[in-house]
Amino acid sequence: MTRVRDDPFDPDPGFAELYGRLPDASDLEPWLTLARSAKPPILYLGAGAGRLAAPLVAAGIDLVLVDAHPEMVRRLRERLPTVEIHESLIETLRLERRFDLIIVPSNILDRSELVKAAARHLASRGRLAFELTNPHWLDAKRHARYRVVRREVNRAEVEVTYPDGTIQEGRIELVWPEDVEAFLASAGLRLVHLSGHVDAELDTSPTFFVVAALG
Description:
The protein has helices spanning 13-21, 31-36, 53-58, 70-79, 112-119, 135-140, 180-185, and strands at residues 3-5, 42-45, 63-67, 84-87, 99-104, 122-133, 146-151, 155-161, 167-173, 189-196, 207-214. With 215 residues, it is of the alpha/beta class. It has a 7-stranded mixed beta sheet. A 4-stranded mixed beta sheet has the order 1-9-8-7.
């Protein structure tokens, strides 16, 4: 049984290998609709091996991609040789320009300091759209292949089992939907939109989507 971990400060090559084997995303929402309504290019933080980025590019979206994992970045550059790609942590990223839309389609911005760091690249009327793990879904205990190893009110250690048997270990900070406005305010942002997946109530949606703006 292979185990991999997602640690941006100590990148695991096995984590990039796992993501490189996954099929490309077939559901591009809400990211495609958001991107089509924004001035290009779109800044995509945490692009991984490109399973969502590549279909978005194929759909005509102009992206600037960022990931902290060297092997993820190598795979991105192989898959998308004409796309602008940067290897960087969110905390240290300095592109010296601002974007109308920043997307983060995974549970990366789970701390207010990371949200604030991401928002450094936001244009004055721009939007920051990101996805967070839903604590209500964790509590519902209806999640196949997703095991909570240890749980506190605002953090959890989890294991995700993939179809090939690989287990991804992770530690995540939990942001409750009810606390999102205060969470954003601590980073100097305001809430524009919050929702679960289409046709899913918040307690049954594995993740929820947040769209925020400055001030």
